[in-house]
Amino acid sequence: MQPPPRLRSVLTLALLAGACAPPNPYDGSFQLLPPVTTRDGLVWVDPARDEVVFVLPKGESVTTRRAAVGDEHTVVAWSAATRDQESVLALTVPASAKEEDIDEQLYRFPADGEGEPVVYEVRAPFTASALSPDHRRAVLYFGGDGSSEQLHNANQIAIVDLQGEGVENVTLNGFGGTLKAVQFPGQIREGEETPIVIGGVAHDIAAFLADSEVVLMDMDDPALDQVAVPLGSDIGFSPKTTLLRPGNDLFVDPALFVLSAQGSEVGMLTLVAEGDGTGFTAQISLIPVGQTSSDFLFYDSASVPYLITVDAAGSALVFTDIRTQGGFTVPLGSAAQRLFLRDADGGKQAVVWAPSGTQLSTLDLGGIEDSLGRKPKHLKIETGIDELVVLDNDRVLIGSGTKLYVVSFPEEQVTPLSSQVRYDPRGSALVGDRLLLGTAGQQWVSTVDLQTLNPESMLLDDPIGAFHYLPGPDRIVITHDDPAGHLTIVDPADPSRSTSHVHWGFLLQGVLDQE
Protein backbone atom coordinates (compact mmCIF):
# COMPACT_ATOMS: atom_id res chain seq x y z
CA MET A 1 0.00 0.00 0.00
CA GLN A 2 1.20 3.53 -0.88
CA PRO A 3 0.22 6.64 1.15
CA PRO A 4 -1.74 9.29 -0.73
CA PRO A 5 0.37 12.04 -2.46
CA ARG A 6 -0.35 14.73 0.12
CA LEU A 7 0.62 12.42 3.00
CA ARG A 8 3.77 11.35 1.11
CA SER A 9 4.77 15.04 0.88
CA VAL A 10 4.20 15.57 4.61
CA LEU A 11 6.27 12.51 5.48
CA THR A 12 9.06 13.59 3.13
CA LEU A 13 9.19 17.07 4.68
CA ALA A 14 9.22 15.59 8.16
CA LEU A 15 12.09 13.27 7.29
CA LEU A 16 14.04 16.09 5.68
CA ALA A 17 13.46 18.30 8.70
CA GLY A 18 14.69 15.54 11.00
CA ALA A 19 17.75 14.95 8.86
CA CYS A 20 18.63 18.66 8.78
CA ALA A 21 17.91 19.38 12.44
CA PRO A 22 21.01 19.82 14.62
CA PRO A 23 21.66 17.00 17.13
CA ASN A 24 20.15 17.52 20.56
CA PRO A 25 23.07 17.89 23.01
CA TYR A 26 20.87 16.65 25.87
CA ASP A 27 19.95 13.30 24.30
CA GLY A 28 22.85 11.58 26.09
CA SER A 29 22.20 8.99 28.73
CA PHE A 30 22.01 10.01 32.39
CA GLN A 31 22.90 6.52 33.57
CA LEU A 32 25.77 7.28 35.95
CA LEU A 33 27.92 4.73 37.76
CA PRO A 34 27.00 4.31 41.44
CA PRO A 35 28.66 6.99 43.60
CA VAL A 36 31.72 6.35 45.71
CA THR A 37 32.12 7.95 49.11
CA THR A 38 35.08 10.15 50.00
CA ARG A 39 35.82 12.01 53.23
CA ASP A 40 34.01 15.13 52.09
CA GLY A 41 31.61 14.17 49.32
CA LEU A 42 30.19 11.78 46.76
CA VAL A 43 31.70 11.13 43.34
CA TRP A 44 29.80 9.88 40.29
CA VAL A 45 31.19 8.84 36.90
CA ASP A 46 29.18 10.15 33.93
CA PRO A 47 30.14 7.74 31.09
CA ALA A 48 28.08 9.56 28.43
CA ARG A 49 30.09 12.75 28.92
CA ASP A 50 33.46 11.23 29.90
CA GLU A 51 33.38 13.11 33.19
CA VAL A 52 33.73 12.56 36.90
CA VAL A 53 31.20 14.51 38.97
CA PHE A 54 32.22 15.65 42.47
CA VAL A 55 29.37 16.64 44.81
CA LEU A 56 30.57 18.28 48.03
CA PRO A 57 28.01 19.15 50.72
CA LYS A 58 28.93 22.15 52.83
CA GLY A 59 26.59 23.83 55.26
CA GLU A 60 23.20 24.21 53.64
CA SER A 61 24.50 23.95 50.05
CA VAL A 62 26.33 21.55 47.76
CA THR A 63 29.14 22.31 45.33
CA THR A 64 29.33 20.39 42.05
CA ARG A 65 32.53 20.05 40.03
CA ARG A 66 33.14 18.15 36.80
CA ALA A 67 36.47 16.79 35.54
CA ALA A 68 37.25 15.07 32.25
CA VAL A 69 38.21 11.39 32.28
CA GLY A 70 39.36 9.67 29.11
CA ASP A 71 37.79 10.77 25.82
CA GLU A 72 35.19 9.74 23.24
CA HIS A 73 37.23 6.62 22.42
CA THR A 74 37.19 5.27 26.00
CA VAL A 75 34.71 4.41 28.72
CA VAL A 76 35.12 4.12 32.48
CA ALA A 77 34.97 0.45 33.49
CA TRP A 78 34.84 1.04 37.25
CA SER A 79 35.58 3.60 39.93
CA ALA A 80 36.56 3.36 43.60
CA ALA A 81 37.69 5.52 46.50
CA THR A 82 41.10 4.93 48.05
CA ARG A 83 41.16 3.59 51.60
CA ASP A 84 42.02 7.00 53.06
CA GLN A 85 39.09 8.45 51.06
CA GLU A 86 41.37 11.25 49.83
CA SER A 87 41.37 10.16 46.17
CA VAL A 88 39.10 8.56 43.58
CA LEU A 89 40.29 5.96 41.08
CA ALA A 90 38.73 5.42 37.65
CA LEU A 91 39.88 2.89 35.04
CA THR A 92 39.30 3.76 31.39
CA VAL A 93 39.18 1.08 28.68
CA PRO A 94 38.43 1.23 24.95
CA ALA A 95 34.79 2.06 24.31
CA SER A 96 34.68 -0.54 21.55
CA ALA A 97 36.65 -3.68 20.82
CA LYS A 98 36.98 -2.31 17.29
CA GLU A 99 39.02 0.63 18.57
CA GLU A 100 42.76 -0.04 18.27
CA ASP A 101 45.88 1.59 19.72
CA ILE A 102 43.97 2.79 22.80
CA ASP A 103 45.66 2.02 26.11
CA GLU A 104 43.95 1.33 29.39
CA GLN A 105 44.62 4.05 31.94
CA LEU A 106 43.98 4.49 35.65
CA TYR A 107 43.08 8.02 36.74
CA ARG A 108 43.62 9.18 40.32
CA PHE A 109 41.63 12.33 41.11
CA PRO A 110 41.82 14.44 44.29
CA ALA A 111 38.62 13.78 46.24
CA ASP A 112 37.54 17.42 45.98
CA GLY A 113 37.86 17.45 42.18
CA GLU A 114 40.38 20.30 42.18
CA GLY A 115 43.69 19.94 40.39
CA GLU A 116 44.83 17.61 37.62
CA PRO A 117 44.53 13.84 37.97
CA VAL A 118 47.51 11.49 37.97
CA VAL A 119 47.27 9.10 35.01
CA TYR A 120 48.86 5.64 35.04
CA GLU A 121 49.43 3.47 31.97
CA VAL A 122 48.24 0.08 33.22
CA ARG A 123 48.12 -1.74 29.85
CA ALA A 124 45.19 -4.08 30.54
CA PRO A 125 41.42 -3.88 31.26
CA PHE A 126 41.74 -5.07 34.85
CA THR A 127 38.48 -5.97 36.58
CA ALA A 128 39.50 -5.79 40.25
CA SER A 129 41.73 -3.82 42.61
CA ALA A 130 43.27 -4.36 46.03
CA LEU A 131 44.24 -1.33 48.12
CA SER A 132 47.02 -1.67 50.67
CA PRO A 133 46.09 -0.76 54.27
CA ASP A 134 49.12 1.54 54.52
CA HIS A 135 47.54 3.62 51.69
CA ARG A 136 50.69 3.42 49.55
CA ARG A 137 49.63 1.15 46.70
CA ALA A 138 46.85 -0.27 44.58
CA VAL A 139 47.23 -3.63 42.87
CA LEU A 140 45.07 -4.07 39.76
CA TYR A 141 44.33 -7.60 38.56
CA PHE A 142 41.77 -9.75 36.79
CA GLY A 143 39.20 -11.04 39.25
CA GLY A 144 38.55 -14.76 39.45
CA ASP A 145 35.12 -14.38 37.82
CA GLY A 146 36.71 -14.18 34.36
CA SER A 147 34.62 -11.12 33.52
CA SER A 148 37.04 -9.83 30.89
CA GLU A 149 35.75 -10.89 27.45
CA GLN A 150 38.96 -10.68 25.45
CA LEU A 151 42.02 -12.89 25.65
CA HIS A 152 44.08 -11.78 28.62
CA ASN A 153 46.91 -12.87 30.88
CA ALA A 154 45.03 -13.99 33.99
CA ASN A 155 48.13 -13.49 36.16
CA GLN A 156 49.04 -10.03 34.91
CA ILE A 157 48.96 -7.28 37.54
CA ALA A 158 49.72 -3.59 37.77
CA ILE A 159 51.26 -2.18 40.97
CA VAL A 160 50.28 1.48 41.26
CA ASP A 161 52.09 3.98 43.48
CA LEU A 162 49.29 6.01 45.09
CA GLN A 163 51.77 8.50 46.54
CA GLY A 164 53.48 9.22 43.23
CA GLU A 165 53.16 8.54 39.53
CA GLY A 166 54.86 5.15 39.12
CA VAL A 167 53.28 1.93 37.90
CA GLU A 168 54.85 -1.53 37.55
CA ASN A 169 53.28 -4.00 35.10
CA VAL A 170 54.17 -7.55 36.19
CA THR A 171 53.24 -11.15 35.45
CA LEU A 172 53.13 -13.48 38.44
CA ASN A 173 55.38 -16.52 38.29
CA GLY A 174 53.73 -19.61 39.73
CA PHE A 175 52.68 -23.15 38.96
CA GLY A 176 49.79 -22.48 36.64
CA GLY A 177 47.14 -21.42 39.15
CA THR A 178 44.84 -18.52 38.28
CA LEU A 179 44.99 -15.47 40.54
CA LYS A 180 41.89 -15.15 42.76
CA ALA A 181 42.74 -12.51 45.37
CA VAL A 182 45.45 -10.12 46.59
CA GLN A 183 46.13 -9.58 50.30
CA PHE A 184 48.60 -7.60 52.42
CA PRO A 185 49.03 -9.86 55.47
CA GLY A 186 51.70 -7.84 57.26
CA GLN A 187 49.79 -4.57 57.25
CA ILE A 188 47.65 -4.57 60.37
CA ARG A 189 47.51 -0.85 61.21
CA GLU A 190 45.50 1.37 58.92
CA GLY A 191 47.53 4.15 57.34
CA GLU A 192 50.86 2.94 58.72
CA GLU A 193 53.73 1.09 57.11
CA THR A 194 54.12 -2.21 58.97
CA PRO A 195 56.77 -4.29 57.18
CA ILE A 196 57.46 -7.94 57.95
CA VAL A 197 60.89 -8.40 59.53
CA ILE A 198 62.66 -11.52 58.21
CA GLY A 199 66.17 -12.15 59.50
CA GLY A 200 66.45 -8.54 60.61
CA VAL A 201 65.44 -7.14 57.19
CA ALA A 202 62.09 -5.39 56.61
CA HIS A 203 59.89 -6.58 53.72
CA ASP A 204 56.56 -5.19 52.50
CA ILE A 205 55.00 -8.46 51.36
CA ALA A 206 51.87 -8.91 49.27
CA ALA A 207 50.28 -12.35 48.99
CA PHE A 208 48.72 -13.39 45.68
CA LEU A 209 46.26 -16.25 46.19
CA ALA A 210 45.79 -18.59 43.24
CA ASP A 211 44.54 -22.14 42.69
CA SER A 212 46.46 -24.39 45.13
CA GLU A 213 49.31 -21.90 45.53
CA VAL A 214 50.39 -18.56 47.00
CA VAL A 215 52.88 -16.18 45.40
CA LEU A 216 54.68 -13.78 47.75
CA MET A 217 56.27 -10.54 46.56
CA ASP A 218 58.25 -7.84 48.37
CA MET A 219 56.67 -4.65 47.05
CA ASP A 220 59.65 -2.57 48.20
CA ASP A 221 62.12 -4.75 46.27
CA PRO A 222 63.12 -2.94 43.04
CA ALA A 223 63.42 -6.31 41.32
CA LEU A 224 59.99 -7.45 42.64
CA ASP A 225 61.35 -10.95 43.23
CA GLN A 226 58.66 -13.56 43.80
CA VAL A 227 58.40 -16.66 45.97
CA ALA A 228 55.82 -19.15 44.65
CA VAL A 229 54.58 -21.73 47.16
CA PRO A 230 52.54 -24.81 46.07
CA LEU A 231 50.02 -25.87 48.71
CA GLY A 232 48.73 -29.22 47.47
CA SER A 233 46.63 -29.46 44.33
CA ASP A 234 46.34 -33.21 45.02
CA ILE A 235 44.41 -32.53 48.24
CA GLY A 236 42.30 -29.74 46.78
CA PHE A 237 43.90 -26.97 48.87
CA SER A 238 42.26 -23.73 47.72
CA PRO A 239 43.76 -20.64 49.44
CA LYS A 240 41.04 -18.42 50.90
CA THR A 241 42.75 -15.98 53.25
CA THR A 242 46.06 -15.34 55.00
CA LEU A 243 47.17 -14.48 58.52
CA LEU A 244 50.63 -13.28 59.52
CA ARG A 245 52.20 -14.05 62.88
CA PRO A 246 55.32 -11.87 63.47
CA GLY A 247 58.33 -13.64 64.96
CA ASN A 248 59.02 -13.44 68.70
CA ASP A 249 60.80 -15.36 71.45
CA LEU A 250 58.30 -18.25 71.31
CA PHE A 251 58.70 -18.70 67.54
CA VAL A 252 61.49 -16.63 66.06
CA ASP A 253 60.60 -16.50 62.38
CA PRO A 254 57.44 -14.85 61.04
CA ALA A 255 54.82 -17.37 59.93
CA LEU A 256 52.19 -16.85 57.25
CA PHE A 257 49.12 -19.06 57.75
CA VAL A 258 46.91 -19.85 54.77
CA LEU A 259 43.29 -20.96 55.21
CA SER A 260 41.80 -23.27 52.60
CA ALA A 261 38.25 -22.94 51.31
CA GLN A 262 37.84 -26.62 52.14
CA GLY A 263 39.88 -29.39 53.72
CA SER A 264 41.19 -30.20 57.16
CA GLU A 265 44.61 -28.55 56.96
CA VAL A 266 46.03 -25.04 57.31
CA GLY A 267 49.12 -24.06 55.34
CA MET A 268 51.99 -22.66 57.41
CA LEU A 269 54.70 -20.77 55.54
CA THR A 270 57.68 -20.01 57.77
CA LEU A 271 59.46 -16.99 56.26
CA VAL A 272 63.24 -17.14 56.48
CA ALA A 273 66.12 -15.12 55.03
CA GLU A 274 67.84 -16.38 51.91
CA GLY A 275 71.20 -15.74 50.26
CA ASP A 276 72.84 -12.54 51.46
CA GLY A 277 69.90 -11.82 53.76
CA THR A 278 68.18 -9.28 51.54
CA GLY A 279 65.87 -11.92 50.02
CA PHE A 280 63.54 -14.42 51.66
CA THR A 281 61.96 -17.80 51.04
CA ALA A 282 59.22 -19.90 52.63
CA GLN A 283 59.37 -23.27 54.37
CA ILE A 284 56.09 -25.12 53.89
CA SER A 285 54.17 -27.31 56.30
CA LEU A 286 50.51 -28.37 56.47
CA ILE A 287 48.95 -28.36 59.93
CA PRO A 288 46.07 -30.82 60.58
CA VAL A 289 43.27 -28.96 62.36
CA GLY A 290 40.37 -31.39 62.70
CA GLN A 291 37.48 -31.96 60.30
CA THR A 292 37.42 -28.49 58.75
CA SER A 293 38.68 -24.98 59.38
CA SER A 294 36.42 -22.00 58.70
CA ASP A 295 38.40 -19.26 60.49
CA PHE A 296 41.66 -18.84 62.40
CA LEU A 297 43.91 -16.56 64.44
CA PHE A 298 47.08 -16.88 66.52
CA TYR A 299 47.47 -16.54 70.29
CA ASP A 300 50.56 -16.74 72.48
CA SER A 301 50.14 -18.12 75.97
CA ALA A 302 52.96 -17.71 78.47
CA SER A 303 54.86 -20.63 76.92
CA VAL A 304 53.10 -21.83 73.75
CA PRO A 305 52.51 -20.15 70.35
CA TYR A 306 49.04 -21.38 69.40
CA LEU A 307 47.16 -21.39 66.13
CA ILE A 308 43.44 -21.34 66.96
CA THR A 309 41.08 -22.63 64.29
CA VAL A 310 37.31 -23.02 64.17
CA ASP A 311 36.11 -26.54 63.38
CA ALA A 312 32.67 -25.72 62.00
CA ALA A 313 31.72 -29.37 61.51
CA GLY A 314 32.61 -30.23 65.10
CA SER A 315 31.41 -26.94 66.68
CA ALA A 316 34.73 -26.59 68.44
CA LEU A 317 37.94 -24.59 68.71
CA VAL A 318 41.19 -26.38 67.87
CA PHE A 319 44.40 -25.20 69.57
CA THR A 320 47.65 -26.22 67.85
CA ASP A 321 51.20 -25.61 69.04
CA ILE A 322 52.85 -24.42 65.80
CA ARG A 323 56.23 -25.78 66.94
CA THR A 324 55.13 -29.39 67.47
CA GLN A 325 51.68 -29.49 65.80
CA GLY A 326 50.34 -31.03 69.01
CA GLY A 327 47.27 -29.56 70.66
CA PHE A 328 43.75 -30.00 71.99
CA THR A 329 40.12 -29.26 71.17
CA VAL A 330 37.56 -27.23 73.14
CA PRO A 331 33.93 -28.18 72.34
CA LEU A 332 31.63 -25.16 72.25
CA GLY A 333 28.21 -26.79 72.30
CA SER A 334 26.83 -24.32 69.75
CA ALA A 335 27.25 -23.44 66.09
CA ALA A 336 30.71 -22.07 65.29
CA GLN A 337 32.15 -20.59 62.12
CA ARG A 338 33.71 -17.17 62.76
CA LEU A 339 36.21 -16.05 65.42
CA PHE A 340 37.77 -12.89 66.83
CA LEU A 341 39.75 -11.88 69.92
CA ARG A 342 38.99 -9.15 72.43
CA ASP A 343 40.69 -7.86 75.56
CA ALA A 344 38.97 -8.99 78.76
CA ASP A 345 39.78 -8.88 82.44
CA GLY A 346 42.67 -11.23 82.97
CA GLY A 347 43.78 -11.47 79.33
CA LYS A 348 42.41 -12.31 75.91
CA GLN A 349 38.97 -13.73 75.20
CA ALA A 350 37.89 -15.60 72.07
CA VAL A 351 34.43 -14.83 70.68
CA VAL A 352 32.92 -17.42 68.32
CA TRP A 353 29.70 -17.28 66.33
CA ALA A 354 28.06 -18.59 63.17
CA PRO A 355 25.63 -17.09 60.65
CA SER A 356 22.15 -18.43 61.47
CA GLY A 357 23.41 -19.52 64.89
CA THR A 358 21.54 -18.52 68.04
CA GLN A 359 24.44 -18.06 70.47
CA LEU A 360 27.70 -16.20 70.92
CA SER A 361 30.33 -18.33 72.62
CA THR A 362 33.13 -16.75 74.66
CA LEU A 363 36.23 -18.49 75.96
CA ASP A 364 38.77 -16.90 78.30
CA LEU A 365 42.28 -17.78 77.14
CA GLY A 366 44.19 -16.83 80.26
CA GLY A 367 44.17 -20.38 81.64
CA ILE A 368 43.76 -22.26 78.39
CA GLU A 369 46.68 -24.63 79.10
CA ASP A 370 44.81 -25.93 82.13
CA SER A 371 42.05 -28.31 81.04
CA LEU A 372 39.89 -27.10 83.94
CA GLY A 373 39.88 -23.58 82.48
CA ARG A 374 38.44 -24.56 79.10
CA LYS A 375 34.84 -23.63 79.85
CA PRO A 376 33.05 -21.55 77.23
CA LYS A 377 30.17 -19.24 78.11
CA HIS A 378 27.20 -18.42 75.92
CA LEU A 379 25.06 -15.37 75.17
CA LYS A 380 21.67 -16.20 73.66
CA ILE A 381 20.42 -14.47 70.51
CA GLU A 382 16.82 -15.57 70.42
CA THR A 383 16.01 -14.85 66.76
CA GLY A 384 19.32 -15.95 65.26
CA ILE A 385 22.34 -14.13 63.81
CA ASP A 386 22.11 -12.68 60.29
CA GLU A 387 24.91 -10.10 60.51
CA LEU A 388 27.54 -9.34 63.15
CA VAL A 389 29.61 -6.16 63.25
CA VAL A 390 32.32 -5.57 65.87
CA LEU A 391 31.69 -2.05 67.20
CA ASP A 392 34.66 -1.91 69.55
CA ASN A 393 36.51 -4.10 72.05
CA ASP A 394 33.49 -4.47 74.31
CA ARG A 395 30.48 -4.43 71.97
CA VAL A 396 29.10 -6.03 68.84
CA LEU A 397 26.02 -5.25 66.81
CA ILE A 398 23.90 -8.16 65.58
CA GLY A 399 21.29 -7.95 62.86
CA SER A 400 18.54 -10.52 63.20
CA GLY A 401 15.57 -10.10 60.92
CA THR A 402 13.91 -6.86 61.95
CA LYS A 403 15.75 -6.78 65.26
CA LEU A 404 19.09 -5.25 66.16
CA TYR A 405 20.94 -6.52 69.22
CA VAL A 406 23.69 -4.59 70.96
CA VAL A 407 25.81 -7.06 72.93
CA SER A 408 28.03 -5.84 75.77
CA PHE A 409 30.60 -8.46 76.75
CA PRO A 410 31.77 -6.96 80.08
CA GLU A 411 28.18 -6.91 81.37
CA GLU A 412 27.14 -10.02 79.40
CA GLN A 413 24.13 -7.98 78.34
CA VAL A 414 22.05 -8.32 75.16
CA THR A 415 19.83 -5.33 74.33
CA PRO A 416 17.25 -5.69 71.50
CA LEU A 417 16.20 -2.79 69.27
CA SER A 418 13.20 -3.11 66.95
CA SER A 419 13.27 -1.96 63.34
CA GLN A 420 10.90 -1.99 60.38
CA VAL A 421 13.39 -3.63 58.01
CA ARG A 422 16.30 -6.05 58.09
CA TYR A 423 19.65 -4.61 59.13
CA ASP A 424 22.10 -4.01 56.27
CA PRO A 425 25.72 -3.28 57.29
CA ARG A 426 26.19 -1.27 54.08
CA GLY A 427 23.58 1.16 55.38
CA SER A 428 25.32 1.98 58.65
CA ALA A 429 28.34 3.69 60.16
CA LEU A 430 29.89 3.86 63.62
CA VAL A 431 31.11 7.28 64.75
CA GLY A 432 32.39 7.24 68.32
CA ASP A 433 29.44 6.08 70.40
CA ARG A 434 26.91 6.87 67.68
CA LEU A 435 25.54 4.14 65.44
CA LEU A 436 24.09 5.62 62.23
CA LEU A 437 21.53 3.64 60.24
CA GLY A 438 19.76 4.07 56.93
CA THR A 439 18.62 0.94 55.11
CA ALA A 440 17.92 1.16 51.39
CA GLY A 441 14.23 1.08 50.53
CA GLN A 442 12.91 2.52 53.79
CA GLN A 443 12.17 6.17 54.64
CA TRP A 444 13.75 6.41 58.11
CA VAL A 445 17.27 7.43 59.06
CA SER A 446 18.27 6.67 62.65
CA THR A 447 21.03 7.18 65.19
CA VAL A 448 21.61 5.11 68.32
CA ASP A 449 23.55 6.40 71.34
CA LEU A 450 25.46 3.25 72.32
CA GLN A 451 26.11 4.56 75.83
CA THR A 452 22.44 5.01 76.67
CA LEU A 453 21.06 2.76 73.88
CA ASN A 454 18.60 5.52 73.09
CA PRO A 455 17.58 5.60 69.38
CA GLU A 456 16.40 8.64 67.44
CA SER A 457 14.80 8.51 64.00
CA MET A 458 13.55 10.96 61.42
CA LEU A 459 11.18 10.42 58.50
CA LEU A 460 12.46 11.32 55.05
CA ASP A 461 10.33 12.54 52.17
CA ASP A 462 11.50 9.75 49.86
CA PRO A 463 12.82 6.18 50.17
CA ILE A 464 16.54 5.70 50.68
CA GLY A 465 18.52 4.76 47.59
CA ALA A 466 21.85 4.49 49.42
CA PHE A 467 23.34 5.55 52.76
CA HIS A 468 26.65 7.44 52.97
CA TYR A 469 28.55 8.89 55.92
CA LEU A 470 31.04 11.72 55.27
CA PRO A 471 33.59 11.96 58.09
CA GLY A 472 34.90 15.37 56.93
CA PRO A 473 31.74 17.41 57.58
CA ASP A 474 30.33 14.73 59.94
CA ARG A 475 27.15 14.36 57.95
CA ILE A 476 24.90 11.53 56.81
CA VAL A 477 24.09 11.84 53.11
CA ILE A 478 21.12 9.89 51.82
CA THR A 479 20.84 9.55 48.06
CA HIS A 480 17.44 9.00 46.45
CA ASP A 481 16.91 7.38 43.07
CA ASP A 482 16.72 10.22 40.56
CA PRO A 483 18.91 10.68 37.44
CA ALA A 484 19.01 14.45 38.04
CA GLY A 485 20.52 13.97 41.51
CA HIS A 486 18.49 13.99 44.72
CA LEU A 487 19.91 13.78 48.24
CA THR A 488 19.15 14.59 51.87
CA ILE A 489 21.86 15.81 54.26
CA VAL A 490 21.33 14.87 57.92
CA ASP A 491 23.19 16.01 61.04
CA PRO A 492 23.83 12.73 62.95
CA ALA A 493 24.10 14.63 66.24
CA ASP A 494 20.63 16.13 65.71
CA PRO A 495 18.66 14.03 63.20
CA SER A 496 15.55 16.12 62.57
CA ARG A 497 13.70 17.51 59.60
CA SER A 498 14.35 21.06 60.75
CA THR A 499 18.14 20.59 60.64
CA SER A 500 18.25 18.54 57.42
CA HIS A 501 18.61 19.83 53.87
CA VAL A 502 17.31 18.40 50.59
CA HIS A 503 19.01 19.06 47.24
CA TRP A 504 17.80 18.16 43.75
CA GLY A 505 19.21 18.59 40.26
CA PHE A 506 22.90 18.91 41.14
CA LEU A 507 23.91 16.20 38.63
CA LEU A 508 22.59 18.46 35.86
CA GLN A 509 24.69 21.40 36.98
CA GLY A 510 27.11 22.29 34.20
CA VAL A 511 25.48 19.87 31.73
CA LEU A 512 23.12 22.49 30.31
CA ASP A 513 26.09 24.77 29.61
CA GLN A 514 27.87 22.17 27.50
CA GLU A 515 27.85 22.45 23.74
From TrEMBL:
It comes from the Bacteria. This is Lipoprotein. The lineage of its organism: Bacteria, Pseudomonadati, Myxococcota, Polyangia, Nannocystales.
